[in-house]
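Fold these two proteins, one after the other.
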Amino acid sequence: MIKYLLIILCFFSTFFVFSQETDSISTSNITEIDTVQLEDEIDEDVPFALVENVPTYPGCKGNEDALRKCLQRSIQKHIMIKYNTGLAGELGLAPGKKVVIIVFSINKEGIITNVKASGPHERLEAEGIRVVNLLPQMTPGKQQGRSVNVNYTIPITLLIE
């Protein structure tokens, strides 16, 4: 009976030792993986809503909130001025609201890239892409002190009568 007790005791102590070593190895590996993943995430695109320091449109000044609002207003104003709204009427589309969604990135150098559009007609999409590509170079956005690509989405709403 004492023999069996010693065997069980040895088994549990061995199990305990190995489980402790495994846990410490797992923890160190997780820390290394998390650090690598975090660095990789910084290299990926960051959504405008989540970026720590937004890209700065030329002429915008102020704190982070003011810069965010200024960038949004400036992009909207640029699109209102440059977009050929008459194009929607020329295409013979049914009356009503038509929305063209434009998605693009402001890269690590502050240049507009990866412009894509989705809308009710390919010519409206092409016009949105053309206009967004005319945006000026900006000061890039930053995440954890490093320049990052920032994704931006803007809807263009057209009213066809």
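Now the second one:
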Amino acid sequence: MKPLLHPSVEDVSVEAILHALSDPVRVAILAELAYSQCSSTCSAFQNVIDKPVPKSTLSQHFKVLREAGLIRAERKGIEMHNTSRCAEIEERFPGLIASIVGAYTRQSQQKLKRTKSTRRTA
């Protein structure tokens, strides 16, 4: 099996982080991993947004997050266990991940409120 690429924290760039987090599914994955105290398998994120995400698409999202240096993945049998590298990134770019995840969380809450409001009026 091919070894997994995990860039050193010194090689992580703001551009790679912003590119990786330009997709709403990847931001949702990172937000959940950032708040989690333990590793999570890829399959735990099949419904990370309001609709199911195919396994092949999830694999690609995790690859982008891993190669950007945002997560660490470890093979355990046939599963990949993923953990956030937010603490390492925080040392290199203070406040960056917290700001992005916080903005995503606020945006998601606002969308949810609008959806509930629209359903009541319909």
